[in-house]
Specification:
There is one protein chain. It is built from seven helices and 21 strands.
Length: 280
């Protein structure tokens, strides 16, 4: 029997999302957010035991679900909670500047961290109608910080055309990043500081303090700077100390697998990406 222990891309991805969650903070995930849901519960059990965990749309506070459900709006997420609040109270809390972190994604994410989950094309010529942002337009303005994630960073090539998720400019801004067509966050008097981390299947970005453009910080053990550049429509800033990310421990991975026996963390990843394994 081999002694080699391997983690999957899905487990490293959860671990990278979780590393952005700090102890003694208030954290919320919204709808269609299975990976942040797993990452939040993992954080609550490991390095952020004093985090206040708002569990999805039900806004149950510090639930203890027996397992991670297949939807973030499942009754399981109110099991053994300490309290529950309505969603409107959650938005009030964010507007007062008391919600420390949330999580957003998008069909398009631009260099300033704006996200598009509304439409491809233009409002006058919609080519693809996307599901919409729910409350993301509000919370992306009000949360103290938020994490962006996408499992679709790798460029897609079809009929000599390239299709990017990380684009130079979004067709439509649903959730606000650092610099929008209407101005910078400070010009718009937004409460929160905006996105601070972007986690993808190829790398982890933060944002350059001056330009507010995405800055490459960490690579996976099997990706390179050239891989990131090839799959990114804009030119990201490369941190002078870009390096391979820290890996989780075997115990960390075992906790992720225990709390997520239905493997909901894998559902967003393309099958070919799930074949990537990393020896711990």
């Amino acid at each position: 029997m081999s002694d080699v222990f391997e983690a999957g891309l899905d487990e490293l991805f959860v671990y990278n999302i979780a590393k952005g969650i700090e102890d003694h903070t208030m954290v919320f995930h919204g709808v269609s957010s299975p990976i942040p849901m797993v990452a939040m519960y993992f954080s609550k059990l490991t390095h952020a035991k004093n985090m206040v965990y708002f569990g999805g749309v039900s806004s149950a506070i510090d639930p203890n679900p027996p397992f991670m459900p297949t939807t973030t709006n499942d009754w399981t997420m109110i099991q053994d909670r300490t309290a529950i609040i309505s969603v409107d109270k959650l938005f009030d809390l964010a507007q007062r500047g008391e919600l420390d972190r949330s999580f957003f994604s998008g069909a398009q994410i631009d260099k300033y961290g704006n996200q598009n989950v509304s439409l491809i094309g233009s409002p006058d010529n919609i080519k693809v109608k996307l599901p919409g942002g729910a409350g993301g337009c509000n919370l992306s303005g009000d949360c103290i910080n938020y994490t962006i994630w996408t499992t679709r960073h790798r460029v897609q090539k079809r009929k000599d055309k390239k299709f990017y998720t990380l684009v130079d400019k979004c067709d439509f801004v649903t959730n606000v990043g650092h610099v929008t067509p209407q101005g910078r966050r400070e010009d718009l008097d937004l409460v929160g500081n905006g996105p601070d981390w972007v986690v993808t299947e190829l790398c982890v970005f933060d944002f350059d303090p001056e330009s507010k453009i995405m800055r490459l910080r960490y690579l996976y053990p099997d990706t390179t700077v050239d891989d990131v550049i090839e799959s990114t429509e804009f030119e990201p800033i490369i941190h002078k100390d870009v390096r391979v990310m820290d890996l989780p421990t075997i115990e960390d991975v075992e906790i992720i697998r225990r709390i997520d026996p239905l493997n909901v963390r894998k559902r967003e990843h393309p099958k070919n990406e799930l074949e990537r394994k990393f020896e711990l």
